[in-house]
């Protein structure tokens, strides 16, 4: 599948491997400083494969120690071994044969955190996407499914716990000092789902009984002394298991389910069969050290990785171009889980907010690619917001188009047809065509065409006739990916809202498009929908629940927005109307040199905050101003981040002044009393109370309300909210410095809280931040090799702090480029991921644009860059 230049992999070049690996037998011997891996592959030439086909196994930085075919050492002319490939010739034409491969690796020196590595003394693995080839030579591709039997051997002191995929099948002592454990995974799986863990770990365990009565032993392992913090994760796991049974009819399929929390981990977590490995930030929680956002994050990630057992593991991907088959679908499933467990509108608003913040800029910039890409240089760079979040939106649109029951029938058909297989997007979509009795060929363009379609909406109301006419129009620009621009199937959910806030009956609409209740299927470039017999002009609540991931262009009157923000019966519609109004007002102020958004807009926010018919979490979302990063996206061209910062701060203060009485009363009413609960309701109350802190403190130009909250806080949400206001709005003040110092002292031994301390300072929009960040990079607690710590500082600045990252003098860009260069020598994957912060450089004003380009070009020109980082830089500059 690799090009001649060894660089670009293309979907169109896919073909199955010439050999099939039926079974893998592995012995992993762990020692201080190195590991020995003995692997026996049970192989067979695939029917129809050429008789002279060589066996070409993937490797990455490997050293071969032994090689035997059916028990006989392979002679030198029979193979060729390099660090990245093992090639064998003259293998049997038919029948199964056994190939024994010995490799030797050094987990302690593995700073890429791919393959087998050591984190804080614990041996662990990360194999997705192409990490298994760093352990042994293999057909390291997702369409090669095999059963695995794994034997682990290690020092009993250093590694009392020995874990692998599947069920435990044996174990015992090995002489005085060592011991072993054996595991067997009966479910054929691709190598990317392989995992082993060994170390000194604490555990919490519970039993789960599945719907059909099977007992499953659930265990969460943590580093020593931290297992009390795994209780909420365990609870989330059990709720996830029950939910997947109820909502999708999916039961767990092994005797054990293990989760291990690791402190050095590139990503959030990994769904290895029966042995999920997690970044410990998505397992460990208590009220003192974790915020409500952390609790919600743990719940989501636990659910997501668990749900992969069916969508990803039982049915996996044929090749990495099909990544959204498992990731987009599993994000959809975890979003649905959170909606059912917490609040549907609040979750939907949060997801749409994330999509717009992360995926829209990706889809509209140099890193644009379709949800199913057709080529890549480095697959790690395609675990993107487009594959994940837009991929989830596509599944959601299929559910919207089919309706709940047919969607479920399509999912059932997918599981029935493809269980045990490595499937494609075509396979997936065909199941919904068959179950729904519907043609989704036009819909399929969503997977192939990159870019955010524009949806233009206009309306004409004829007073005398009582007739409302809606016009919808779609268009798609050719972007960096250069894919097609054909009209797509866009489901547009809508409502007409009467003056008293009631939904009008829309069943009598006449149209040249297909309309199905409150859903317009826009399939052509344009559609017109007409409503007759109206007694007055209704308010149009368009694109309810964000029924399609489009860029809505609707010249909506402010009076309509104010009305919808107050009385749309669809809660998402209320948020949509208000935030579009706030966003437009801020962009206008920024572009026209005004000081702040107008009072009419601020008053609508104050009213939303006080509206007791809405749940507090939703009110918090409605009274939140867009962040500076979001404003950077909304301004879109010739961006000056100094102006954005100035306008946002004055608007925040103006909001605090307009709402002062209301906000103070609300904060008293919502004050923390009684025992801590992590429930969505309790978190929502804290969210609303804490959202009001910044406007009040900035309006008063006085940090004391935040100081008091910091000093009296009884949980991390309240404490961090106060500290954020102090560091971000009173940077450099005695109040801020005192609180930061106290926070450090209090949590100096807690790695996860120290990450917050680093990130908070890096994300402060203040002229002094860059100097502070330079000093923090030299702080004894800073470790570039730890991804969480590196992200806290680098992504804290480049991702969360446009005011400093986009400094007009270019110093932010240069610092970031320099740090990325250093990080790249340790951990290319994490460096490449954070380099995407540069993706919007072309939307800056000329001076910044030039500075960004210079910093990027300097970095891109360095020798010895990883393929990961070079790929991102090349595409960003192209
Ligand atoms: N399979 C991924 C983990 C992964 C990502 C492995 C990239 C290798 C490369 C996992 O299921 C995942 O998607 N994790 C997300 C969190 C999730 C809730 C979206 C992550 O790690 O960010
Ligand atoms: Zn995933």
From TrEMBL:
Span of domain Peptidase M1 alanyl aminopeptidase Ig-like fold: 451-554
CDD domains reported for this sequence: M1_APN (cd09600)
Molecular function per GO: aminopeptidase activity
The Aminopeptidase N-like N-terminal domain, residue ranges: 25-193
Cofactor(s) required for function per UniProt: Zn(2+)
Organism: Aureimonas altamirensis DSM 21988
The UniProt record lists the keyword Zinc-finger: no
Any one Pfam family match given in the protein's UniProt record, by short name: DUF3458_C
Similarity comment text for this entry: Belongs to the peptidase M1 family.
Keywords for this protein: Aminopeptidase, Hydrolase, Metal-binding, Metalloprotease, Protease, Zinc
Lineage start: Bacteria, Pseudomonadati, Pseudomonadota, Alphaproteobacteria, Hyphomicrobiales
Name by which UniProt lists this protein: Aminopeptidase N
Coiled coil feature spans: none
Keyword Zinc: yes
Catalyses which reaction(s): Release of an N-terminal amino acid, Xaa-|-Yaa- from a peptide, amide or arylamide. Xaa is preferably Ala, but may be most amino acids including Pro (slow action). When a terminal hydrophobic residue is followed by a prolyl residue, the two may be released as an intact Xaa-Pro dipeptide
Residue span, Peptidase M1 alanyl aminopeptidase C-terminal domain: 559-877
